[in-house]
Design brief:
The protein is of the alpha/beta class. It has a domain of 212 residues: Leucine-rich repeat, LRR (right-handed beta-alpha superhelix). It contains 16 helices and twelve strands. Strands 1, 2, 3, 4, 5, 6, 9, 10 and 12 form a nine-stranded mixed β-sheet that branches. Strands 7-8-11 form a three-stranded antiparallel β-sheet, with no helix packed on it. Helix 1 packs parallel to helix 2, helix 2 packs parallel to helix 3 and helix 3 runs parallel beside helix 4. The longest helix is centred in the last third of the chain and has 44 residues. The C terminus is likely disordered. InterPro entries: LRR_dom_sf.
């Protein structure tokens, strides 16, 4: 079943026309469908977005490109991404049509990306495109009126036929800026108009030499592995009735849905789940007598098989180059690469499905409640990091408790600081007193020694002291007797003198009396 050329998307619609517009009838079908949808959408909304317009790797003529850009000329129609790479007829004339389209756009409807690689653009077309970007005020696209940074146009022009010297002149003039995956997408509002994608910032712009070949002489388109494409251009989806049988049972396939209100609103207007629609859906369903027709209906188209066979060699060469890019150390620089490591490391998707009961055996095995040995080993291996983390957390918590206790102990001295100051002052006084007492004690020690020696001598000679006192007493008595005798003599002599004074002629008598 072929994928529709126009499919709905989250922000609007997407045009899926890569390698599918070689026949003129297909292109006319695309233009008719696109015009009808744009007319219907512009009546009910202020802005309609084509998130991805992919017409790449088609040999569209100049008239077809003019018709396409005329269909996009409705007001308030914004194409977020143009994919027109690998078109051998996209030459300077088509670029001129593109420049006229850019000049008529408003800043709100300016595209964000433009993929024009592997085409037939020369230096003249390149100069015309740069002039259109310089003449308009579309880029860099500012997020608000007061923003100082904006987003330049994401532009790809590699593998064209442009003079690289002219490209370098535009880079030096500030119109373009070489851009890699590691570069910043934003630029000042007065900065470059476009980010020109290059493989490396080495001054090379990957342009072809010589003249562009005619469209009929162009090589086959390259095999492009686009991660943004959610589905292939030709696909074989599961039948809707089979899908409902798998997830909602046979009752849902018969129209008895387990919920109400399924046919309200737009679904009711379209006749969703009506008996006629169910009868039409069940035609050719495998298992209903028409399995071969259904299998033929869902078989891949021959054109897709031819594309797959023609792209084997290119795919193998691409895989070799991609494997080198995959091994480079650029993890985290964009969301598309190296994400398989995060998915592989995350074992939460395993759950407990490996431990479910095995009911395929009759009777049930003895060890039906146990998981296989390899699953147990894997679970133990997955649990080891968790146990290690738990031990580290416990150690960390114990260390934090010690740190809290230490901080609490350090806060106590701040509260006891006045007491410590008083204690230190008292200790200084005690030290001074002890320093003053030491020399006094040293001076008193000899005196104490002399006193103790004198006391010992007094205790050893008590008798000598008593004899000395008695002798002193006897001596004092003799001296007193001598004194009394001398006093008596003096008194007698005084008497004799008085007598002589009374009797002046009595000398003889006095002498006699004395004799």
């Amino acid at each position: 079943m072929a994928l529709p050329l126009i499919i709905p998307s989250a922000g609007g619609i997407e045009v899926k026309g890569r390698r599918r517009l070689e026949h003129p009838a297909k292109f006319e079908e695309l233009i008719a469908d696109l015009t009808s949808q744009l007319e219907a959408q512009t009546e009910g909304s202020d802005e309609f977005v084509i998130t991805d317009l992919d017409v790449s790797q088609n040999k569209l003529t100049l008239e077809q490109f003019q018709t396409l850009f005329s269909a996009l000329g409705f007001p308030n129609i914004r194409v977020a991404r143009f994919r027109m790479f690998g078109c051998p007829a996209l030459n300077d004339d088509v670029v001129q049509v593109l420049c006229d389209y850019i000049r008529n756009l408003s800043p709100e409807c300016a595209p964000s990306e433009m993929h024009l690689s592997d085409c037939a653009i020369t230096t003249d077309g390149f100069n015309a495109l740069c002039s259109a970007l310089e003449e308009t005020e579309l880029y860099p696209k500012a997020t608000s009126s007061t923003a100082t940074m904006g987003s330049p146009l994401y532009l790809r022009l590699e593998n064209n036929y442009i003079d690289e010297g002219v490209i370098q002149q535009k880079v030096d003039a500030g119109v373009l800026r070489p851009f890699t995956k590691t570069s910043s997408k934003l630029a000042p509002v007065s900065g470059p108009k476009a980010n020109l994608v290059v493989k490396a910032l080495n001054g090379s712009y990957a342009q072809n030499k010589g003249e562009a070949p005619a469209p009929e002489d162009a090589p086959p388109p390259k095999q492009v592995h686009d991660t943004r494409r959610t589905a292939s251009q030709d696909w074989s989806p599961v039948h809707p009735v089979q899908f409902m049988q798998m997830f909602m049972g046979k009752a849902a396939a018969k129209g008895a849905l387990p919920w109400t209100g399924i046919a309200k609103g737009a679904a009711l207007a379209k006749g969703a789940m009506s008996p006629a629609l169910l009868a039409q859906m069940t035609k050719g369903l495998p298992g209903k007598g028409k399995g071969k027709a259904a299998l033929q209906q869902h078989a891949p188209h021959a054109q897709w098989q031819a594309w797959s066979q023609s792209g084997k060699e290119e795919s193998s060469s691409w895989n070799q180059a991609a494997s080198k890019d995959w091994q480079q150390n650029d993890w985290g620089q964009d969301w598309q690469k190296d994400k398989w490591r995060d998915w592989k490391a995350d074992s939460s998707w395993q759950g407990s499905s490996g431990t479910s009961t095995d009911r395929s055996r009759t009777p049930v095995g003895r060890n039906h409640n146990q998981a296989p040995a390899w699953q147990q080993q894997q679970l133990q291996h997955n649990q080891q990091p968790a146990l290690q983390q738990q031990q580290q957390r416990q150690q960390t918590s114990a260390w934090q408790q010690q740190q809290q206790q230490a901080s609490a102990w350090q806060q106590q001295p701040k509260q006891q600081q006045p007491q410590r100051q008083q204690t230190s002052a008292w200790q200084q006084q005690q030290q001074q007193a002890s320093a003053w007492q030491q020399p006094q004690q040293q001076q008193q020690q000899p005196q104490r020694q002399q006193t103790s020696a004198w006391q010992q001598q007094q205790q050893q000679q008590p008798l000598h002291g008593s004899n000395h006192s008695s002798s002193s007493r006897s001596r004092s008595g003799s001296s007193s007797s001598r004194r009394s005798s001398s006093s008596s003599r003096s008194s007698s002599s005084s008497r004799r003198r008085r007598r002589r004074s009374r009797h002046p002629h009595g000398k003889s008598t006095s002498l006699r009396s004395i004799g």
